[in-house]
Design a protein that fits this description.
The structure is a homodimer of 455-residue chains. The first copy, chain A, is 41% helix and 13% strand. With 455 residues, chain A is α/β, with parallel strands linked by helices. Chain A has an 11-stranded mixed β-sheet, with helices on both faces. The A-B interface holds A 238, 241-242, 315-316, 318-319, 322, 343-353, 359 and B 238, 241-242, 315-316, 318-319, 322, 343-353, 359.
């Protein structure tokens, strides 16, 4: 990534692209072709995609252009190519869950989120690589900043594709840290909205208590524009919040805050695992924010978040992957098998005690958000680790996923090796708009400073 | 019960009483005094009450009368005395949960349902007997129709109080069959609305998946009038359905159906446990309904409902009563201890498999309710059993409680001993109004026929 993407079609962000697609100064055909060219050039090394049919993508793009040329009304993402993680069903493409047991699997149906993207006019570009069943076993994708390093998981391909300008946005999912972590390692914006914001119908079910759909893009406003299309009640997913007005994320992200946001810097019990490079980067961030940030110590109960998530996730994996384990355990990751086997031993009492912690932590957070607009905390322990045999630790994400709080990773910091370090900004459950507004303030203020420094 | 209650104040039903309280032809003082007189006369034998402070009840009644006399606007139950099961918190009375460990316990707070009753103008008459922790161990209450028989449980006192005209209505709760069963044994109407209709905040929590608040009264319309006050979203109970228009139960109960309702007669896997007297009573009911009723065989999965409820309930009891078990197991019912000990061994996988059955059965029911307005099925195996050492079997209620479907017990049938036999009418989850309308049609048609036979 050399900066040459600026001015190029594949370098366009969501908001700019959809504006140009709408006013006719750009065709979906040209934009999609530019993304496909980019994929052709870089994917042999990055391997972000598990299914790609360029002709099918171009056919969708051309249909979009014809539709628009006829003067029909167009949706908010009309003509925009988007990548979809391969645990999300698509009626016209396979869905293989990163698992050899599902080679060539086709459900013939669109997940609700895919149907919503199509209804908004998006071009479904192809399917991006996931770890096995969106858990730990890595697949082939490399980190675009250094192919010797992991892109993170489980939404590995989605993060790598957006980072390497193969697609302006991508869908991911997070049961533990699978959107925030790869977004941080690959240096893109990653967003996991409040639990219940986005339907999971047609998405691999690992844990109905934890599974959350998220997305990656290259700016806060790009995240918000796609998020607006994805959010909303779905009768097919009882976990989604009931019919209500849309969250209006883009409008909220662009809103001027009445006063500059106040951030709480929370180190969490995981701070000891954070690498020196992260400590330094966050000191830099704290200095930058000055009196807009306050170090804040979370109540003790937050230390139990990681273990609570583990317990719920393992027990739910044991139930939801039982059939796959029974028919093909020898083909599955031994670490996944261990999780399933241990998860099967967890008692309902321990499982429900863990689940009960959500309400306790939620109540604490509600109080904290009376005083702060967002919690700032690392997204990962450090830069993307060397090697491709692991996708890194999700521990910095677990507690927020467990609570169901909205979280965003902002690629604002850099480590020693020049690799991205994500700033995780956590918001109040149900107020994703305020989170994006605060994030946009932070991102823009930070960029301005970098520009000033460079000038 | 001799019929002399007709024309007496204590014999007034909810709708008639609130109409007279409203137009001033009856004072709350007189009505409450009549109920207290009735209690004084009959409770030494029936023992429906665990807490009763006549002076405090009269003080509430007099306050209601003064309020009305001053010309203030009054609520829908203004001046009406109501009984409250003793697992529901009251700020001005003890809440002992039928358990010696909680002798004299006072939370100092009103449960949401009690607060709603007070806001509607009701007089909280006192606390009615529950089995220990609303599970199996019976307390002192006898069946008003035959003091040698159980009133059923766990809402024993509420059913007995309404049946013996000590109160026109009473709150109960149902985790398995604790509203429907005692209502059936005592010959009153018992209603357990759809799961999520009534807040459980301030009610003993046995199983958040199963616990449901219900009520007893002496007619369908009386049930509906009180139900209208109780239903509604409560942020303190995440199980309640989101803000929405009220169910308008009384208006729906009084509505003329566009066509006479059609009933499905479902025998369920429990039919073999039903006594001959129940078989006969339901044959009589089927003959009466003629072409308005069709025998209907439920899909196989319904046979698993009782076991699914048991598994969820026992595992939840093990968690929610752990502290009580730890500090005083020797004072608890050995059967309850057994449930807690076995419940602690249930794995999360088995627990969640059981919970998953709710959606499966719900989907079947949704189809069945395209063709029928209600499912008719026994409320219990037969008349109230002889003896006070057991409260009878909840098995005929378990599946409907598990699904969260609304259910009503109608005291329409009689057994050989002349004791009431309840007809359980089950409705579609979320359409409690249609259930009450169909029930009212059935009850009125049945009474007309009895009157014609008598004439």
């Amino acid at each position: 990534m050399t900066g040459s993407e600026k001015g190029s079609l594949y370098g366009l962000g969501v908001c700019e692209a959809v504006a140009r697609l709408r006013d006719g100064s750009l065709s979906s055909r040209d934009l999609t072709a530019a993304c496909l060219e980019r994929i052709k050039a870089f994917d042999p090394e990055i391997e972000a995609w598990v299914f790609l049919d360029p002709e099918h993508a171009m056919a969708q793009a051309e249909a979009c252009d014809r539709w628009r040329q006829k003067g029909h009304p167009v949706g908010p993402l009309h003509g925009l190519p988007i990548a979809v993680k391969d645990i999300i069903e698509t009626r016209d493409m396979p869905t293989e869950y990163g698992c050899s047991l599902y080679k060539g699997n086709r459900s013939g149906q669109d997940a609700t989120v895919v149907a919503k993207l199509r209804a908004a006019g998006a071009v479904i570009l192809g399917k991006t690589v996931t770890t096995e069943f969106a858990v730990y076993r890595p697949s082939k994708t490399k980190n675009p900043h250094d192919p010797g390093r992991t892109p993170g998981g489980s939404s590995s391909g989605s993060a790598a594709a957006v980072a390497s300008f193969m697609a302006p946005a991508a869908l991911g999912t997070q049961t533990n840290g699978s959107v925030i972590r790869p977004a941080a390692y690959c240096g893109v914006y990653g967003f996991k909205p409040s639990f219940g914001s986005i339907s999971r119908a047609g998405v691999l079910g690992l844990s109905s208590f934890l599974d959350q759909v998220g997305l990656m893009a290259r700016s806060v406003e790009d995240i918000a524009a796609v998020g607006d299309v994805l959010c909303g009640y779905d009768a097919q997913d009882p976990g989604t919040a009931p019919p209500s007005a849309g969250p209006d994320l883009l409008a909220r992200a662009r809103e001027e805050a009445p006063v500059p946001p106040k951030f709480a810097f929370v180190k969490t019990a995981q701070w000891a695992e954070a690498e020196p490079v992260t400590h330094e980067a966050f000191e830099q961030m704290a200095a930058f924010l000055g009196d807009r940030i306050t170090a804040f110590e979370l109540p003790r109960e937050f230390d139990e978040g990681v273990e609570a998530l583990r317990r719920v996730m393992w027990a739910d994996l044991a139930k939801n992957l039982a059939k796959d384990y029974d028919r093909g355990r020898e083909q599955l990751d031994p670490q996944l098998c261990h999780m399933i086997e241990e998860g099967a031993k967890i008692t309902a009492v321990d499982y429900n005690r863990a689940r009960d912690l959500r309400g306790v932590l939620q109540a604490h957070l509600d109080e904290i958000f009376d005083a702060f607009d967002g919690l700032l905390t690392p997204a990962t322990a450090g830069e993307a680790p060397l090697g491709l045999e692991s996708t890194g630790s999700p521990a910095f994400c677990s507690t927020w996923t467990f609570i169901g709080a909205p979280a965003l990773s902002l690629p604002l910091l850099r480590g020693e090796a020049g690799l991205p370090i994500g700033v995780q900004l956590v918001g109040q459950r149900g107020d994703d708009g305020r989170l994006l507004r605060s994030a946009n303030w932070l991102a823009k203020r930070f960029e301005e400073t970098l520009d000033e420094d460079a000038a």
